[in-house]
Amino acid sequence: MASTTDWARAVATTITNYLREEEQATLRRYRIYSMIESGGNVLTNQSGRGFSWEIQFRQQPVSGNDGETPRNFARHNLWQTAALDYRGYQSTDMLYVREMLENRGQQALIDVAGKMSTRLQTSIEQKLAAEVYTDGDAPGNELRFQGLDSMFGYDGSIDIADGSTNAAIQAADRFLAPKDVYAGLSTELGAIAGSQTSDGAWPDAQCDPEYDYYSPIIVNALSSSFSGTTWAENCVEAMREGIHQARRNDTKEAGINLVMLDRRMFIDSLNNLDAKERTIVSKTNGLKSFGFSDVYEIDGCEVSTEYNVPVGCGYGLSTDNIALHSMQPQIIQSDGPYFSETNQAYRYVASVLANLKFVSPRSFFKIVQEVGV
Predict the structure, then answer these.
(1) Helices (H) and strands (E) in the chain, counts
(2) Would you say residue 23 lies in a domain?
(3) CA-based max dimension of the chain
(4) What is the CB neighbour count within 10 angstroms for residue 249?
(5) Which of 12, 32, 184, 359 lies 20 to 30 angstroms, CA to CA, from 255?
(6) 177-205 per-position pLDDT tens digit
(7) Which residues of 175-213 are buried (b: 16+ CB within 10 A; e: fewer)?
(8) Based on the structure, what is the number of domains in the chain?
(9) pTM for the whole structure
(10) Is residue 68 domain-resident?
């Protein structure tokens, strides 16, 4: 009969090798993580107390010149610093020596020790899939990823006629007024400086770069200015508003390329589109290439769904502007088993210490369903 030490060594080797070999598959099981990985935006072995990046919010002033016009030289600050900390998750389990010895041979209905790594990894995988959407700044979420809803807070709506902010959401207004703080910077319009430079309502109206450099698009799919009264009737119009308005400042390489809808909204959108209107995705680097079949295309963007999208919501993503920063050498790090002589037990843990980074909220949009007054 194998000794307890030999048994523990075998289990330790199994759990470490399994997590290392399955690490990439962990990301590929979920749509957004698949796109992050394919863009080379999974960064491991990161250090420091957190991470930061610079956001250019304005341009240098430009003036006329006739070849003899005097020049005024002055310094201009063009950047704001966004910063996030590392957060994470852990899953633990424990096996007593007697339980490990009992769970062998033909009497073992379930391979508890040998499959420990599978269960720990699966638990964290499923948690990470949901954390893409979480509001990491909400009370009680201090240890959770700062996901998409960390930047999509809103207060009132943008008046469809003149671009002013309505304290209450008006039925006709297509866009809600962004009001949140993401990575230490405000998402409100004009939070630093700037203003609209043309008549009309934002985001249709032109404005100074600093006016909306950090403001996401939040579309109200139930606006009475759309042609219908429900999401099923307005889905194409609402998605197009989000897609094209979010492209107002970006480049081709960093544009909106993926729309994720909750399952009911996805089904309703499929029912709205007939075969002539809907484009089947054939991209070589999109979700189809990763084996996801429930995907179609609208205006150059893939549209899909997954279980964890919050009910009644949709998200427009520029996946090239999303990164996952991990302090550990791999996203899910395994440790153990460690033997406790006092308890006569082997302890196992799998953990994540990382955070998501969205380069700028202006590269994203959210679809909500609000009934205005």
Answers:
(1) 6, 19
(2) no
(3) 95
(4) 15
(5) 184
(6) 999 999 999 999 999 888 888 888 999 99
(7) bbbbbbebbebbbbbbbeebebeeeebbbbbebbebbbb
(8) 1
(9) 0.85
(10) no
